[in-house]
Amino acid sequence: MFCPKCGKADQQPETYCRQCGDFLPDFSKQIIKSTTPEEHIKANTVLNFMTGIVSLTLAILLYAFFLGREDTHLIIYITAGFLTAMFAWQVQTFWRTLLLKKHFKRRQTENSAAAVEAPNPTASFEAAPTKELLNEADFSSVVPATVTEHTTKQLAEKINRKSS
Questions:
Q1: How do residues 54-100 score in pLDDT, each as one tens digit?
Q2: Distance between CA 21 and CA 43 in Å, rounded?
Q3: Residue 86, pLDDT score
Q4: Which of 95, 91, 92, 100 has the alpha carbon at shortest distance from 37?
Q5: Rounded Cα–Cα distance for residues 48 and 57 (Å)
Q6: Contact 44/98 with Cβ under 8 angstroms?
Q7: DSSP states of 50-116 as a string?
Q8: Closest CA relative to residue 25, chosen from 37, 35, 38, 11
Q9: What pLDDT sits at residue 127?
Q10: How far is CA 28 from the centre of its chain?
Q11: What percent of the chain has pLDDT over 90?
Q12: Alpha-carbon span 60 to 63, nearest angstrom
């Protein structure tokens, strides 16, 4: 395997490159698809619905069996009230989840419409009018890349003069 960053050959997958230190994943393994936010929302919708139904059913049963009895303990009424509050919370969470699903669906249709309308950027390459965008290059004060760039020619001339 070759390192995708530096090109060094004879590398092992799932290790680090011996030249540049970049991690080398195993491209032959199948990539496990991660769950999308839409899938999480679907699971949350089902759980919200089930939790709301169970809490409402339990609250109704507690009120039906114990409401109006003289020997009913206060904790039964507190529990029934708590279950009713849980139902109300689950209803508003369910409503917000439905709104979020609608938002994701709208965003997905907008993105697909934008992808259809957008031209392919690699379809045609046109030359940009660079003279309008950039100033002309000024080569009067160019600094050589290194200090010793043109010194070998001078050394060769000195050697030729000494030898003759």
A1: 999 999 999 999 988 888 899 999 999 999 999 999 999 999 988 88
A2: 41
A3: 96
A4: 100
A5: 14
A6: no
A7: HHHHHHHHHHHHHHHHHTT-TT--HHHHHHHHHHHHHHHHHHHHHHHHHHHHHHHHHHHHHHHHHHH
A8: 11
A9: 60
A10: 23
A11: 26
A12: 5
